[in-house]
Amino acid sequence: MASSPLSSPVVTKRGVKVTLNLVPPEEVISHAGRLELVYCSAFGSAPWFESARQARRFILRLLDHTASSGFRLVIAEIDQQLVGFAYGRIALSRSEELEERYLPLVEWLGPVVSQSVLFETFELTEFAVATSWQGQGIGALVHDYLLTEAPCNKAWLITHALAENAQALYRSRGWRATANAGPAEEGARRTLMSISTGVGRS
Hints:
The chain is of the alpha+beta class. It has a single domain (4-196), classed as Aminopeptidase (3-Layer(aba) Sandwich). Helix content is 31%, strand content 27%. Strands 1, 2, 3, 4, 5, 6, 7, 8 and 9 form a 9-stranded mixed sheet that branches. The longest helix has 14 residues, at 52-65. It starts with a strand and ends in a 6-residue tail after the last strand. 30% of the residues are buried. The model has no long low-confidence stretch (mean pLDDT 88).
């Protein structure tokens, strides 16, 4: 199964021509190196300061997630250069054991919020645009395409509480902050955001 592109390049509000592709799970590994480069570019500086080792761990996690229910990956290319991506999945199922990394979040939010917001909904797991291409409207295109292809009409994400530009983009696309999670120390706080899209594909 080949990548599923839009019929023609999309032009952002800044006049940048971008090709968006929905990548099948079995093809994700072929993009791993380019995805890692974009991840390093997007998250290597404030407020994340992620290392090359963390970027490699992201790739391993992404490849593992390709087997998840509802997995979707959208990539953005300009002249065949990968400049951005977003992926998500149905991360939390009531019938499956929780991944260890979600346990603190579920415990902090409590059973009511967790059940209504997190479970059986689409997690926007990771979203990045290379630093040199930020501010060109690429992120909005990638975001909108991913949510259009999402398998259900409710979604959630976790972002850094100090990531003001990222949160501004999310709010402009209809996301709302639901809760803050994690220790209050600067650099450790995260913001939970959620959205009802009104769309959803099986």
